[in-house]
Amino acid sequence: MNNGRAPQNPAFTIFTPTFNRAGTLERLFDSIARQTFRDFEWLVVDDGSTDDTATLIARLAAHANFPIRYRHQPNAGKHIAFNNGVREARGEFFLTIDSDDELMPEAVAVLYDSWLSIPAVERHGFTGVTARCVDQHGHLVGKQLDRSPLDSDSAEATLILDMLGERIGFHRTDVLRAHLFPTHLPTRFIPEGRVWLDIARRYRTRFIETPARIFHDHGAPRLSALDRSQRAWGDLEYHHFALAHYAAWWRRAPVAVVKLAIGMRRAELHLGRSGGRANFPRIARLLAFAVEPVASLAYARDLYSQHGGMGTRLLLARLLLRGRAGRRFSTLMGRRDRDRARGAITIHVADVTSVIDPADTRNHELLFSPKTAKLELLAVLRTLAPRHRRIATVGDNVTFVALQLARAVPQAAILAVEQDPAQSDRTRAAAWASYVNNIIAATASLTTDPHVLDDRDFVYFDGIAAVQAWVNAGAIGSGLVDIVVEDPDADATLASLLARAGYWRTPWTASTISVWSRAPATPVPPGNG
Asked: What is the average pLDDT value for the chain, to the nearest integer?
């Protein structure tokens, strides 16, 4: 969308990422329309809104006296919208303003005048100018500078000068294009500081005391307010990067650097994985080791605040439990919480994010002993599944398996068939949280949709009862090649049933699963036979 008034090379691109903020965008539009400095465009990147954002922007663009451009993207997070905005920008300078805030009338003029006050021969070493904010009541937000203007950088401002809190500023667009957010992580949130600290390694910023933005704290949820489990990937990326590049500042900013190490280990504990230490300086590795007790306490506090007393047991179990003993003990621990669970829990296991019901005993292994959860099953699935393209998982609780198959075979269409609509909703939420887009969560049964498996060539059943019901009903298609059944009690009855349907058990050795194939027996990979 473009209202046709866009100059090819404006001085500023005023950029707004938005998601379901149609109720506040017009207020922001009015504040942009009041700007005394007019050489700008307004670029809006919509992060998959489901409200009337597109209609509103079209109406505003129709009568605006400044250029407006609108771009829509699938919901992927503010950092992806930012990257797309930077690539789309036509302005020399890139000024970000959130969709629920306002610019003061002189905002762009003040920022540009401050830029021009930097000697021309020095501007190549600067990325931009940052100003103060006021809240909706007119009160200044954040820490006051000792002097204004102050030429520093984002690293020094954050780690040494403690200049935290809301501010607003612009960056040179060419600098931002060389320092975009990473996009490989399964998250919709990465702290903005990840980019600012990267830029600070080469460029300075001019900080001024003049306010330029009105910050509205309206109580609505912000991405930065996500709980630590939900934002763990982004937090790990930020703290890992910061510690890798700024651990050497430990003499200048000891408290800030220690906090970076704690933040990194805290996120690693939530994810159950390490961010890697290969490129860390020695002091960073030492700090990561030294802060382990404090990070563990912070992690325990996170779990307790999210899940009550269960959170403490989760912490102990994840640190101590391994193998079969861990699986048995996790079930015992889980029974204590069946009647006290606080709804769905978001957990990170084996590179996927699962949204699960803690009252369901089948989830206790994932909750309490994730490092050993379904290892045999995953080893088989990751070997067999890649040769198939139409895969189904069938049972009462197949979220975790469906996610793993979607990761293992990204080019395949994964159908997750469950009978409980609430469980299907959890599967959809987990797929969204794991950045998996090849899962279809279907609420179906033999009664409601007996043909749902007709076109599948690989099916996982979560137990003998499920496979018996579907095979007896003749509800599997002629194109089905491989069947995997998760049940340690596969017996002669199941073998006879599947043999009549044209399937033979393959010689996989696994205590909790059996594999059946219509084709000749599947060759057993080394270590499985």
From this structure: 86
Domain-embedded: residue 2: no
pLDDT at 529 exceeding the cut of 50: no
How far apart are alpha carbons 502 and 519 in whole angstroms?
A: 9
Does residue 232 share a domain with residue 141?
no
The answer to whether residue 523 sits within a structural domain is: no
Q: Which residue's entry shows tokens 């049972």?
A: 395
What per-residue string of b and e applies to 252-270 under the rule 16 or more CB within 10 Å gives b?
A: ebeebbbbbbbbbbbbbbb
Report, in this order, helix, strand and coil percent for the chain, each rounded to 5: 40, 20, 40
Long-range contacts of 477-480 (CB under 8 A, 24+ apart): 477/453, 479/390, 479/455, 480/453, 480/456, 480/518
Q: Is residue 236 part of a domain?
A: yes
Q: Give CA–CA dist 525/165, Å, rounded.
A: 56
- The answer as to whether 528 is a domain residue is no
Contact between 365 and 330 (Cβ < 8 Å): yes
* Domain-terminating residue out of 191, 221, 251: 221
Q: Are 439 and 402 in contact (CB under 8 A)?
A: yes
Reply yes or no: is the peptide bond before residue 149 cis, omega within 30 of 0.
Answer: yes
Q: Which residues have CB under 8 Å from 456's CB, separation 6+? A: 390, 391, 392, 415, 476, 477, 479, 480
Residue 1 identity (one-letter amino acid): M
- CA atoms of 389 and 57, how far apart (whole Å): 41
- Residue 488 above 80 pLDDT? no
Count Cα atoms within 13 angstroms, Cβ side, for 323: 1
Residues paired with residue 46 on neighbouring β-strands, in sequence order = 18, 72
Q: Please name which of 158, 99, 106, 150 lies closest in space to residue 129, comparing C-alpha atoms.
A: 150
- Predicted confidence (pLDDT) per residue in 62-72, tens digit: 999 999 999 99
